[in-house]
Amino acid sequence: MRRPTAFLLALVMALLTLVVPAGPAQADAWSGPQTTIVNRNGRKVIRLCDQGGACRTTTPFFMALNSQSQPVNNGDWRYVDYQAQLAAANTAAADMNVAPMLQVHLASTSDAFIDQLAGRLNQLNPRPYLMVRFYLQDGPPGAEPMRMQDLQGTVRDDTNGAGHPWTLDEAWLAYQEQQITRVLTRMDAQYPGRVMAVMIKYANGGEWFYRPYGWNDTTGKMLEWGDPNLCATGTDGVRACGLHPWTNDAGTRPGPRGRHSFHLGDYASSTQAGFCSWSGLPASLVPGCRAATTTERNNAVPGGSPPLSGASRGTVLDPADLNSLRAAKYHQYLSSRNVAAINRLLAKAKQVTGNRVLTGVFYGYLYGLAAELPVSGHNDLTTLVDSPYVDLVSAPYSYGNGRHLGYGFVPQGPPDSMRLTNKLWMDEDDTRTLFARPCPTPPGFQTATNLWDSIRLLRRNLATTAIGGRAQYFLDLQGCGWFGDPDRADESQTLWANLQSVFRAIDKIQHGGANAYQPQVAVFVDDVSPNHQPGLTPAGEHTYSYAVDQLPNLVDDLTRLGTPVRHYLLSDLTKGNLDLSAIKLAILPNAYVVSSTLRSAINTKLKTPGRTVLSQYAAGYVQDNQAASTASMTALTGITVARGNGTPALSQNYSFVGQSGGPAYPLTPWFTVTDPGATTLGSYQVGGVSLARKVIPVAGGSYTSVYAAAPKLPLAALRRISEDAGVHHFAPAGDTVEAAGNMLMVHAGSSGTKTVRLPQSMPRVYETALYPSDVEMCRNCTQLANLPFNQGDTRVFRWTSPPRGNFELLTGATVEGWAADLDQPATSSAVAVYRGGPAGVGTYLGDFPTATNRPDVNAYFGITGVHGFRFTLAGCSPGTQIHVYALDPEGGNGDGSTYLGARSCT
């Protein structure tokens, strides 16, 4: 059963009070700015207030440099210095609204290195604000090492420092609190007034997750990514590396230790004791409590033996078996423990700095970890998002198709959840641009090898994150000048000149205008259900394909739907400020384990008149800690479902789009639709309905349920389902679209002329993000016809809106209200007043300026300026009608006036 968020936070707070001293005693001398996340024109930005100085807001964009790189280790700071100065110089103009901000990944946390880094930063002009990013890789004497347990039950201590050697016990946590205190106070002292954020790193790659790799008996270390023991030569003669435990490679085991030596996280004594004292432990597991064995965590077959090579063990751990329930809860506990440690350490950073810095962490790779997700420790994003100690959650973008031109910029998790708690999802953009070089190793995942392709990729990435209300930073991962090479200064300047145009466009995003658009498709991904999936081979040799089809491939395809898609946590449905008024299609990709509380929220928030809900595979299979059942699925989807027999491949024919597809592999369990009231959209090639739609009555009308009994719906099917749901599509399927408020980005998946459909008639439409200025495309138009695109082109458009306002009061002869043109949100405007009738009928009494401060209006829209009006009219006899119009400050070049209504003099 999902634990209520309030209870989780109370538990975390109780733990923190044991270790965090009260009061800001250590923050008295902190010189850095007060840094907060605020609303600007309806999107989240960063506000920086220097102590004793001015405040400014900034688009949340950083340049990120890695001083752990080989050049810096060899004493070569050229790439760091050049990119830092290049970024600062190209974000200095006021009309871009981007403060110079730099993230630096520390090569060392020693005082000597901090002093050296600060010395270089102090030479920059302007001195950028700094996000300190560092790895909590050391452990104190007495800290307990992490222990792994293989499938035979052998416990192994990784005491040689391979990747993530320390369990998160009290000794380690207290030591890291000391390190956070020392590093931050030293950095503030040496680089005064500029430290504005901190990001902590730990575990695999510094991203707080665990991977189920193997164990090297010779060295006594875990096998990390790239280890030769994870390589094998198949019967086809091809040598493959980075093999996962479920990889058979044509019958050849992945190295001498084989698949049965793989571990699934921490089995240290403090971890196992913590599991048995965990507040989320079901009562049925309390008597004789013990940690789940690795075999239990790998098997969805109650009492099953260790999985054989390539054997499918079932995709869902069923609570009907206590061993399976114990396995699922052990997965869940490891995620809860991760998040509790992150919260505690970031609470220390808040305390040390007097709550002045933003705090961030890498977490929540629900889309990115695929088959590794169940044992990753990344399945408690719900708690982290709601934590008062977390401001930023960061992740790299997908390493799949999203790295290529013609595809969408794909996040690793649900970024839109963050805005509900006034926080930021931060995309790590480590695109390998034309400047990437072998330094010290070839830059993997490089897809841009020339200047123009690099610009098009970065334009796509920046526009996507900005329109979506996220933060972003460019990371020069290898420290070799990926975003500016001093030996190629002309190309570097050209790259950044194009980025400046994007920054200027971003600052024109406006969510409060009369023509503001809201996305109509939303995904609700669950962070509890992955805990109920076996750790290594749920689908045997098809485990990786199944895991990728379940989430990553779906998310990738949704970027090419021709319309924008929002991504939330399933638990967000319990939040009162989640606005679903624009959503026409809601997608539940992995809601396999759904509590009674969330079922109620789904019923009240999603199953509403006029909406379509698409559910996939084992949707609703488990309720709370009850036995899995198809009846539970039927209750969630509203469509009668049966469990299939045997283990056939689940290839399908989709009659409504004339395509075949689906997974060409078996799954256990698999399901088929048996509801006579449902319309068949697809069928298994072995027989039975695989995809169906049903209109279901609810209070006030009906909603449409679409159930896909197997994952891997083709793009054509997703597009047709969204069209039938009434979703507006800006571009053809295959093109990437991001849109919100007054801005639209189209990234072409194919070459040719395209027509971009607007959601309504727009007064003026401009192509923006152009150098040197915007270009007007049309007036009073509903589409942009016959636009030429090459594959991978990124074009950005914005539209205008007439002014908004409200004629609030007419007391005696005093007129009160507000008016603002959100195309020019900082500019004061005016209202025109007529007596006895509207314009053209009544007597014109004059124009009156907005000269009264209205902080409530400014706060609501996230704008500045003076937008209130209050004035007294002459000749306002009782009963006389007064008509008010908000005027466009752009005059004849604007969008006309807006009628604010009439009131009678009293």
Give a description of the structure.
Residues 1-27 form the signal peptide. Keywords: Signal. InterPro entries: Class_I_gatase-like. By secondary structure, the chain is α/β, with parallel strands linked by helices. Among the domains are: 521-724, Rossmann fold; 736-799; 804-904, Sandwich (Immunoglobulin-like), CATH 2.60.40. Helix content is 22%, strand content 25%. The chain has a nine-stranded mixed β-sheet, covered by helices on one side. Helix 10 links the parallel strand 16 (424-429) and strand 17 (471-476).
- Which percent range describes the beta-strand content? 25-35%
Helix content: 10-25%
Please state the second-level CATH architecture of the domain at 521-724: 3-Layer(aba) Sandwich
Oligomer: single chain
Provide mean pLDDT, rounded. Answer: 90
Summarize this structure briefly:
By secondary structure, the chain is an alpha/beta fold. Helix content is 22%, strand content 25%.
Which terms would index this structure?
906 residues, alpha/beta, Rossmann fold, Immunoglobulin-like, 8-stranded parallel beta barrel, 40 strands, Class_I_gatase-like, signal
